[in-house]
Amino acid sequence: MGPRPGAGAADDSETDYAELLIGDLHASLASPVSESMNFLNEIALRYPDAVSLAAGRPYEGFFDLDDLPRYLSLYRRHLTERLGDEEDVRRTVLQYGRTKGVIHELVAEHLRLDEGIIADPQDLVVTVGCQEALYLTLRALRRDERDVLLAVAPSYVGVHGAAGLVDMAVVPVRDAADGIDLDDLVARIREVKAEGRNPRACYVIPDFANPSGTRMSLETRRRLLRIAAEEDLLLLEDNPYGLFGDPDGPPTLKALDTATRVVYLGSFAKTGLPGARVGYVLADQRTRDAHGGAGTLADQLAKVKSMLTVNTSPIAQAVIGGKLLAHGCSLREANVREVATYRHNLTRMLDGLERRFGDVPGVSWNAPEGGFFLLLTVPFQAGDEQLEHCADRYQVLWTPVHHFYADTRPRNVMRLSFSHLRPEEIEAGLDRLARFVRDQQQN
Amino acid sequence: MGPRPGAGAADDSETDYAELLIGDLHASLASPVSESMNFLNEIALRYPDAVSLAAGRPYEGFFDLDDLPRYLSLYRRHLTERLGDEEDVRRTVLQYGRTKGVIHELVAEHLRLDEGIIADPQDLVVTVGCQEALYLTLRALRRDERDVLLAVAPSYVGVHGAAGLVDMAVVPVRDAADGIDLDDLVARIREVKAEGRNPRACYVIPDFANPSGTRMSLETRRRLLRIAAEEDLLLLEDNPYGLFGDPDGPPTLKALDTATRVVYLGSFAKTGLPGARVGYVLADQRTRDAHGGAGTLADQLAKVKSMLTVNTSPIAQAVIGGKLLAHGCSLREANVREVATYRHNLTRMLDGLERRFGDVPGVSWNAPEGGFFLLLTVPFQAGDEQLEHCADRYQVLWTPVHHFYADTRPRNVMRLSFSHLRPEEIEAGLDRLARFVRDQQQN
Questions:
Q1: Which residues in chain A have Cβ-Cβ distances shorter than 8 Å to B20?
Q2: Is the pLDDT of residue B2 over 70?
Q3: Best of B303, B305, B311, B417 to disrupt the A interface by mutation (most A CBs within 10 Å)?
Q4: Which of A383, A394, A432 is nearest to A39 (CA)?
Q5: Smallest CA–CA separation between B161 and chain A, in Å?
Q6: Fewer CB near the terminus (10 Å): N or C of chain B?
Q7: ipTM of the complex
Q8: What's the number of CA atoms in the CB half-sphere (13 Å) around residue B65?
Q9: CB-CB: which of B18, B21, B30 is closest to A259?
Q10: pTM of the predicted model, to two decimals?
């Protein structure tokens, strides 16, 4: 706040309007992360007719508004069977409710069926999307400026965002072909400890990472868990895309975790409905207070939640609960069409890239086995400036990879997404991208 | 994390389980505020058959699960008329959406009709309940340890909770018969500034405050706005109960605010449906960045939100949007039965207190003109220990007022709520309370 703004404007001259300088607000608001999100949203709005190889959204072709009353009524019937009393059913869905959520038992059953994770429903906190789950976890773990988070670089923008809100430093760990360079992880942990700081946790997306699309091998998962135990570290496993791949792939870290080293972050945005904004966190780590009182980390996350959003809308939970009930709690079952669509899209992307760039020097890409994304390497800088030019002249959008490093230095890699597109849109997008790449190379 | 827990237990002895000490987690988790919320929830669960004069919940008698599909379909029709395209309608409700929300224009119309507040819909951020609105605002305003929040003591527990999450000190301002001691406010501002700290804002509930039930006079509102302008302070106006009183009462601070001094925090938990978890913040303060770029505080709050919960469930927003549409956007109109119920309950409480305590020395209470709460003063300490005794022996719950001071020192005041009770429950609750008070006095 400060000097009267618009002092030159006659209308304002009598009034001492409040004015806030961004520099006087919390640092997260001027960070590259927050600028990233703004820039990417804004460019999508500015070029609505461009093909977007940028948006990481689920395919809308199967969305149906009539599902909402159907899911609500399925969940209502389920509650009536369980609670007996109609007044209790009404109260559960419409009144203030349990901080940890009301669909925890259905979520636990889904985890058992689809992921082989045996979860005590009391260790689950149902959240406002996975992003809130991430915030709750980082807020609880960050006591002071010595506490740091490790994360593979590049990583999902939201992890940098949530860490920024709690002023938690993110220490980058080197990426590798199967998701993480474990030697670098150990080196970073040692380095952080030598500086007198505490590596509280390492954030990973083992299955079809955002942005790289890579999947960790079983051996890497086992070694990662061993390192976590040896170094007394938690692993934050984020798994929004795991269902969209080979069901015989390696188990999640949490399914392999025999020592409560893994905090598991779940999302229904891709497997349920993004508009419900329902996610969850499974945090079965034991806690101890000064008086010897015991509990689990989930109880502590619920305390943070009670001060942040109070509880997740039970109406939104009922929608997801109904979708789970409609498919016997198996989201793999609920997503048969979606899985097929995403796999077709992935094949089409890989074939399309091969056809257009197979013999272009300096252009390469990775070949994920599932998920929503892949990385395309080009022989020139692909930053925000190039994206703007490409959007304006070629009508195709992609995501400059520097946004996933939480900095502003352009690199020669783009994230391409293919989840939400129809086949003809993928072809059109790749055609335009090929023209852009060719023209850039000739400059 | 640390030493192996359960080292004595044979089953655990081979495994290095993660264990977390509460003292190693964020300070908010060991604060009196967080213990408050836990204790109050826990005691309500332990005595489910007690009459609760503690819960600040809306009356459930008018709740109807069939309203959900009706509201959803009203909002859907409204969107179809506005957008034309069915695909856009589906996308708006079911896909990821606008960070600031999708029912902002309906909310602005409600503010115009019911509160005489003229709001640019672009200055609104639709939030996960009012609690998230409070968090977003405090997160943005708290840059470093010098930034403090002023708040009337006693104040709503949630303001202490949100401030704790961002490590923001709350400086108490003395209460008064009409809501705030303005001389003390000025004295506290001066004191804080003299210490080199920045009083960023003052939190107030001008209409039927929680816990006191008091309503500020028009003169107090005008003086408060003048002080805010003179001292370059923002006012955070929280208004969950304003509709439940005389419609000819004084205007909200925001309606009187000609200089964007007021950030207005709104809730639909009491006027809409608690289960939707939808609230909002109106933040029309202008901001300026280092490059001269201009915007409003709402844009900054949306940035925080994008890192916290991404967006408020558009399904939950559609439910509230439908309720607004069902009543021409007037929540006063939508709540005719509720307003009558709460006023009857208030009258019954005041009559009931008079009948039982009118001639009891040392017992007194205030007489709010609306809202959900009042304060009862008793001639003995009424802290957590007394509450437990009262719940156990007399089967009636109330809230010890120390919880609203964010400390643990018992005082001789209880908050009594009456919003969610049927008439016979009020009578039974007051009978039990009278027996408890009489027995306490005889000890």
A1: 285-288, 297, 300
A2: no
A3: B303
A4: A383
A5: 5
A6: C
A7: 0.95
A8: 22
A9: B18
A10: 0.96
Beta bridge partners, B262, equal: B235
| Per-residue pLDDT reduced to its tens digit, A93-133 | 999 999 999 999 999 999 999 999 999 999 999 999 999 99
pLDDT in tens, B298-328: 999 999 999 999 999 999 999 999 999 999 9
Tell me the chain B residues in contact with residue A158 when contact means C-beta distances shorter than 8 Å: 307, 310
The CA distance from B156 to B178, in Å, is: 16
* Residue B389, SS3 per DSSP: helix
| Helix, strand, coil in percent for chain B, rounding step 5 | 45, 15, 35
- How far apart, in whole angstroms, are the C-alpha atoms of residue A209 and residue A154? 10
Amino acid occupying residue B371: G
Cα distances (angstroms) measured from residue B279 to each of A427, B79, B282, B370: 42, 20, 10, 21
CB A416 within 8 A of CB A426: no
List, for residues A46-77, the tens digit of each pLDDT value. 998 999 999 989 999 999 999 999 999 999 99
Give me the architecture of the B26-55+336-442 domain, per CATH. Answer: Alpha-Beta Complex (3.90)
Q: Are strands B294-296 and A147-153 parallel, antiparallel or unpaired?
A: unpaired
Tokens standing for residue B326: 């069902």
pLDDT tens-place string over residues B205-264: 999 999 999 999 999 999 999 999 999 999 999 999 999 988 889 999 999 999 999 999
- What type of residue is B347? T
Q: Tell me the CATH number for domain A27-56+336-442.
A: 3.90.1150.10
Cite the residue boundaries of each domain of chain B with CATH code 3.90.1150.10: 26-55+336-442
Pairs of residues, one from chain A and one from chain B, whose beta carbons lie less than 8 Å apart: 306
Q: In chain A, which segments carry CATH 3.90.1150.10? A: 27-56+336-442
pLDDT in tens, B372-412: 999 999 999 999 999 999 999 999 999 999 999 988 889 99
Cβ–Cβ gap A287/B129 under 8 Å? no
Preferred mutation among A57, A141, A277 to probe B, highest tally of B CBs within 10 A: A277
Nearest to B180 by CA among B129, B156, B215: B215
At residue A371, φ and ψ (nearest 5 deg) are 85, -160
C-alpha–C-alpha distance, residues A263 and A285, integer Å: 8
A318-331 burial, b at 16+ Cβ within 10 Å, e below that, comes to bbbbbbbbeeebbb
A251 within 8 A of A310, measured Cβ to Cβ:
no
Query: Residue A430 contacts by C-beta under 8 Å, 6 or more apart in sequence?
Result: A349, A352, A353, A356
Out of B90, B311, B319, name the one closest to residue A63 (CB). Answer: B90
Please choose, from the candidates A235, A70, A71, the residue with its C-alpha nearest in 3D space to the C-alpha of residue A149. A235
Provide the 3-class DSSP secondary structure of residue B268.
coil
Nearest to B140 among A29, A37, A68 (CB): A29
How high is the mean pLDDT of chain A?
Answer: 94
Pick the CATH number of B67-333 from 1.20.1270.10, 3.40.50.300, 3.40.50.960, 3.40.640.10: 3.40.640.10
Q: What is the C-alpha separation between A119 and A102, in angstroms, rounded?
A: 15
Distance in Å, alpha carbon of B160 to nearest chain A alpha carbon:
8
CA distance B206 to chain A (A): 20
| Cα angle A94, A96, A101; round to 5 | 95
